[in-house]
Design brief:
It is built from 8 helices and 8 strands. With 257 residues, the chain is α+β, with helices and mostly antiparallel strands. The chain has 2 domains: 96 residues; 146 residues, no CATH class.
Amino acid sequence: MLRTVSAVRYVTPLREGGSLPALVEADDDGLYVVKMRGAGQGPKALVAELVAGELARKLGLPVPELVLVELDAHLPDAEPDAEIQDLLAASAGTNVGLDFLPGALPYAPGGSFEVEPGLAAAIVWLDAFVENVDRTPRNVNLLVWHRRLWLIDHGAALYRHHSGLGPEAARGPFPAVRDHVLLGAAGSIAEADAELAPRVTREVIDQVVARVPPEWLDPATPADYVAYLRARLEEPRAWVEEAEAARVREGGSGVRR
């Protein structure tokens, strides 16, 4: 189960993101980056955040803690920005928060931080599995904090659920993987697949989907999401072959600075 906290102080909007997330203080004294249910893509972006983030955690990948955040519509009454006031009013109730990593810096492709090839391959594999179209050089969605790489912002994953889930679509390739920011640093995606795919069991998928408030899935059901993710893992996995081919074209297999 995810922890649930209540927002007690609205700190500031984070205008880097298109969905206008906010930094809030909660009743556990923690600071969280809150993704709003009332933002443009609606609750489906929060579904993707929870499903992809919790799958990453199950696989041992570094993701800030995800929590459910109860938000009072009147929390930012002193905020002069009408857009933010409207967003908060539309998001009253349950939202998703990521633990704030103070002082974290965006990962810079070609910079001094070294990404271990196995970790890079695992991240590429995860993003291809959940069809995350938003981890590119333009928008890396990776932070470096305490000399460790952290995965953030999975709201663009599972993009097909905006138009409906189906097993045929689930078995298809994922062309967007060719733009992944870590391809050049990644080791073998095929080897990552051999290690990771068996760990994404039916039980794991059930547990992850069960953490999503069911009303956010509507008109789909939890069973639809479970079936879709299980279908993604059926062999042959075209998206693994595509990711491996893209890695080879990019010249991946070692550490890129």
